[in-house]
Structure formats: C-alpha cells, structure tokens
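Give me the 3D structure for Major facilitator superfamily (MFS) profile domain-containing protein.
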Amino acid sequence: MAISWTSIIFMAAYIPLVFPASWVLQKKGLRIAVSLGAFLLAVGSWIKVFSAEPNRFQIAFIGQTVVGISQMFTLGAPARLAAVWFPHHQVSTATAIGVFGNQIGIAIGFVLPPMIVREETMHDLHQVGTELGFLHTGTAFAATIIFALILLLFEASPPVPPSVAQKLMIIRDNRSTDNSFYVSLKHLIGNLDFDLLLISYGLNIGAFYAYSTLLNQLIVEKFPDGVQDAGRVGLTLIVGGIVGSLAWGVVLDKTQIYKGTTVIIYVLSTLGMAAFAYTLHEKMMTFVYITSAFLGFFMNGYLTVGYEFGAELTYPESEATSSGLLNASGELFGVIAVIVAEIILYSFSSLITNISLVLMLLFGLLLCLFIDGSKLQRLAASRQSNVHNLLI
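Predicted structure for Major facilitator superfamily (MFS) profile domain-containing protein (392 residues):
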C-alpha cells in the first residue's frame, strides 16, 4: 500500500496547485514555468537521496511530493510549447513529441531501477539502501544537469509567431488584465463541449493510472512468480504508448479530425482493457504482453489527442489553461481510480478490478459521443487567415 501511496501523492500534488501553475505558464511564459519545474524536480530528487535508509519513508514521501509538485509546471507544457513554436499543421506532431519525452522517462523508470536495485539483494536491507542511494543520487545529478541546461538554452518564444492563430493570441494576451486568467477559467468551465472532454479525458487517464500503478499486483495474483514479467509488461505498455503518442499526433496533423480520432481511440482502449482482463484471467501471458502494448498505443495516444482537441474547443484561450485542467482531471480521476481499484483488488479479484476499469472507460466513451466536434476554433482561425492571404 505504501508504494501505491507514492504514486497517489504524485497525482494528488498536482490537483490543488494546477491553477497557480497554469497562471505561471500562461502569464510568465514557458521559460519561467519550465525552469521552476526543473528546479523543483532537482530539489525533490536530492531530498530522496537522504531517504535511502531504513525507517526513512517519510523523507522519501516528502521528496516524492516535491517532485509531484514540479510536474505541474511541465506536464501541460508540450501543448503550449507546440502552439508557441510551431505552425498549425505541425502543432499536433510537436505536442506528440513532447508527450513522447515524458513516456521515454517513464520507460527508463521501468528499466533502470530493477537493474540498480536488484531482486537478489532484497533480503539485505543495507545493500538495498546502498543501491537505492546510488539510484537516487544518479537521478538527482541528472535533474540538476537538466535544470542547468534549461537555464542556459531554453528560450521563451521565437522572434516571430509561427501562425496567425498564435499571433492573435499574443495580441489578446498583451491587452489582457491581471484577472484575465480567472476570466479564461470561467470561459473554459462554461464550455459544455470542453466539460465533456474534461471528464472523458479524466476517466481515460484515471483508468490508465490505476492499471499501470496496480499492474504488479494484478499480474502476481495470477502468476505468483511473475514479478519480472510485471516489469516487462509495464515496459511494453509504455513502449506502445511512445509509438501511439507520436502516431496519433501525426494523424491529427494530417486529418484535422479531432472528435473522430478521439472516439476511435476510446473504443479501442475499452476493447483493449477488456482483452487484457480476459487474457490475464485465463493466464495467457503472451497475450497479456500483446494487449498491454495495444492498450499503451491507444490510451497513451489519447494524451496528445486530448491536449489538441481541448485547445481547438477553447481557442482563443491559452493552451496552458486547457491542458492544465485536463491534467488536473486526469490526476483527480487517477487518485480515485487507484484507491478504489486497490480496494476492489484486495476485496474481490483482479478480474473484478479490470471489469471496473472497462466500465469506467465505457462511461468516458459515452461522454465523448456528445462532444460537438465541429467547433474547431483554432483551426478555423488558421483557415481564415490562409483564405485572406490568397485573396491578397
């Protein structure tokens, strides 16, 4: 349960502070927001260095909380960075590459820790502490180097806006007042289509968080000696997600079909979760790997699609605000889903747990169907500008 809570605090830390973090990203710009995130990541990582001893879980928990807070300034950055730096026909792909970077980090998290903190030394607490200390120190040094590189190399914006839609947003932001962020929030919350996307996105990401957090317990229930398999299945899930996030970003840029893409992803995510539930229940390990890759491809692909669909539905509001709210929804539903799914797992079985996640996705799919996919306001602004240029 303690391990689950380190995951839960990572999600829960985001929820109450999403609004000030989104304000920083929108009002102070990418450079300051990303620098703050990198700084807090380095601080949290160094705190965790001092937790690699018995009876120091509280220190690890504090460090994990600081790291969780750091993500507020970076988790929503890909959509904002893509809009600020790239023309409209490349925005979705650029967002996908930003999400890709996040998934690469998660994949490394599946691979490196088991290599450094070895299973054969688990009985020796002193050796485990030494190996954990090495892992945390390496992470802290890496985070510090990244922070330094951001300070030296990261620029807030290009000299010239990459699109007319972005130029119009800059003009609007320059005319805005101090309370414009709260006006923007009001507009977003009052947008019914965005509200439907907000909840459906949260349900999808929440189900994914529950699945990935409890993956080890789900597999070990059916395969008592399957700890290593659980790690490899998790890696397969993330690799599928890396491919999916890039693929769906390219699809969006090529087709500009946001609702249709969202519905397809949701349908196949739901079918994939049902297939995983069946193959795990029947102890078909090969197919567990296959269904996990399938799930990662579609569920993680929704990260990119959700950001871009939200930006289209809410333009000319800032992508920082819409992506921040989407992330908060994902974290909120993630906390609830992990806690409830863990209770179901230990009270009933892995099959009932997985069925509950399938039902969660079905409800999210139903909400998606009611979104009006024709209100693509950012795309409309770009098309109008293209027509104007042709006439001139």
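The chain has 17 helices and no strands. Let me know if you want a second pass.
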